[in-house]
Amino acid sequence: MVMRWFAVPALLVAFTGSVWAADCPSLLQGSLPKLHAKESIDLCQRFAGKPLVVVNTASFCGFAPQFKGLEELYQRYKDQELEVLGVPSNDFKQESKDAAQTAKVCYVNYGVTFTMIEPQKVRGADAVHLFRVLAEQSSAPKWNFYKYVVDRQGNVIANFSSLTKPDNPEFIEAVEKALASKP
Predict the structure, then answer these.
(1) Handedness of CA 47, 52, 27, 141 (dihedral sign)
(2) Which of 51, 103, 105, 111 supports an S-S bond with 36, CB 3.0-4.6 Å?
(3) How many domains does the chain fold into?
(4) Which domain holds residue 108?
(5) Residues with catalytic annotation?
């Protein structure tokens, strides 16, 4: 009889875990390593139900000063659950091969506090799952600092070129639409 009571919590955990995984949008399936850390981020656990801005970044790109604007955006809206996810990539040959250098640019040079991932592939067949789904829902990044605004259900509601700065009124409007979306 005692053995049965131990089985019930295990079944509940297994059941709720599978239901939770089924509710996770395709975009957020999987995990990615956090920049210059020993931990990985479970994308669904961290971002499900939250509005999200995803940006492919590069430390040595001329658009790197946009880190400052992205951080300002994050600070402005984080109390409304906005998340910003920076994904460094060397797909356009402007990212360091050294994650410590990438971290220095993000955290020291620009004061980034939003989530940053270790450099990843963001284009083509080798792109990480997150960027394959972003491309399916909109388009693949055409250059560094390509921005995606994702609603609380994990759907891309807008994407913006590298030329669009984080304080652009159309970009802000898309972010506010994502903030207003229902989980």
Answers:
(1) negative
(2) 103
(3) 1
(4) 25-180
(5) 61
